[in-house]
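agent> fetching stored inputs for the iron/sulfur cluster docking request
agent> found them:
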Amino acid sequence: MQPFKKHRGLVAPMDRVNVDTDQIVPKQFLKAITREGFGRTLFYDWRYLPGEKPNPEFVLNFPRYKGASVLLARANFGCGSSREHAPWALLDYGFRAIIAPSYADIFYNNCFKNGILPVTLADDQVADLFRRLEQKEGYTLSVDLETQTVTDDSGLNWKFEVDPFRRECLLNGWDDIGLTLRFEDKIADYEKGRNPQAPVFGPLEPPR
Amino acid sequence: MAPQTLYEKIWKAHVVTEEPGKPALIYIDRHLVHEGTSPQAFSGLKAAGRKVRRPDLTFAVMDHSVPTKDRNLPLVDDIAAAQFAALERNCKEAGVRLFDMHDRNQGIVHVIGPDLGVTQPGLTIVCGDSHTSTHGAFGALAFGIGTSEVEHVLATQCLSQFKSKAMEVRVNGRRPRGVTAKDIILAIIGRIGIGGGTGHVIEYAGEAIRELSMEGRMTVCNMSIEAGARAGMVAPDETTFAYMEGRPFVPRGKDFEAAVSAWKRLATDPGAQFDRAVELDAAKIAPQVTWGTNPGMVAEVTGRVPDPGSFKDAVDREAAERALEYMALEPGTLIVDIPLDRVFIGSCTNSRLEDLRLAAGVVEGKHVAKSLKQALVVPGSRRVKAQAESEGLDKIFQSAGFEWRDSGCSMCIGMNADVLPSGERCASTSNRNFEGRQGKGGRTHLVSPMMAAAAAIEGHFVDIRGWNGQRGE
Ligand code: SF4
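agent> prediction call returned; pasting tokens
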């Protein structure tokens, strides 16, 4: 996974609450067997007119947001389906950071597994950013995971909270599985039934 | 020892190792896999030179894209065919049991787990699918994960997880006739909102939950994710054990008795603390119908489509406006005046035997409205289908003008040929009414199986409680 330390980029708005992952990547693209190329499918049903012609009324198609890499969003972003295709598409499109007041749990997790930083700010801070973004074409933000700050060129400097362990993993781009496999002996112990509270297992083969 | 919740008990029993300030490593007892979210996990595993650690605890099934008719003909969808082939190859290489689309046990992953007895109380169960919360109806800790986590579980049989907060949703009293588990969960979501459970595991309790059958409890737990919760659970009791006994993967004889006495200890201890608690009165719940583009946009069948202007919050108002525009509904319209194009009875929320029996009871001897373009019944699994057929339900549905299909996710998600056409309106027993969920431009209203069945007969919604001599359940 590519690490995330600091990112500076053009901001694009997604001014809707409860954007679900069915919108981020519609189901017709869930039949792929690789992780590549999902950028084209991002917000597909909103983004394109029939024949995959860009819909000029969809915000990401506005010329001023071309090349955006920071997505400013509203509450409960990424709700619904667990599809990891959603962060794959965001990343492949070019988004490295998201800023929103809240996220759905599974989506939030999935971002960290893919080198995307989901920044959580207070409602009024996010509302403020939406205003700034509307007022200034080319509005750019820096998101720094090391210092846990969001800054802009006019002196805005806000701290954000993130779980220290998630932060460390993302800063280093650590492979989760590799981390877990360091505990191989503990996993093997658990499997040998050394945890007295472990559950009752049913048979793993049905009777013939 | 301090009193513990069901969630805490299962959590503790599964901690492999933990360090302060870090997520715990928890052991996963059952890993369910489907074709949609697993191919990239298997290829990641292969690329890293890793193996599936516990193929014996992993169960795979084809459900999302399977055709629901003419399954013996060659597949017309090449991309889906490639995905099925990938799952078959991956399972074969790893030694994972696969219920392919021709297996007599095939079905929607969240229907076959409980159906076969793979789902059991006290277990940790994961699947790359958000509705894994369904299995919590048995008092298991079951939740959906992303594809990276699927790969992690394949490789290590563990997950690195932060403990969630615990929330109790208590539904007191008895539900009125005609009000089902689906109406209870929609009413809960309407009350706490679609983000209301975020960061929490919900335990459902109270008389109205205890009175539900296992099918009903599964319907409730299934839609926990629609309230944003990580998982939903119900403590196991005699209803649970009676449902389980004799299913293929459930212990037998003396082992079953021993298991039951262990399962009985899982219930939340009196006095255990929840981080949050919500109470509802079942007697006040009416049949529910969603009018918008998320499951929290829901009204009673006797109600009206709301006026966006009635929402205090500007963001909610805008969301409601956008939803009504998408749904092509006028504020103030009576819910029962909404005309329908199609009806879909199916999905992991409502496609079990009880659901089909209830719907069949409503349509028996009647016929779907002429104005309807299609009425579809898609059993949740082939076992359910066979049982329903042995009771003659297929005949009842077919003579009422419904199509009787083979099992799969079908029009819940429209990844196969069962797609809701653009601009059409569907009463659906599934769980998501997001824009385009059943098909691009399609308009979904979520309801219970009885409400969907009655709507099919009339061509518009009706209040099942006083309809056509129906006395409800
Ligand atoms: S029936 Fe629908 S919600 Fe359930 S697993 Fe299938 S696609 Fe997902």
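agent> quick read of the result: Residues B 63-64, 108, 110, 129, 131, 347-348, 409, 412-413, 430-431 surround iron/sulfur cluster (CB under 6 Å).
agent> awaiting further instructions
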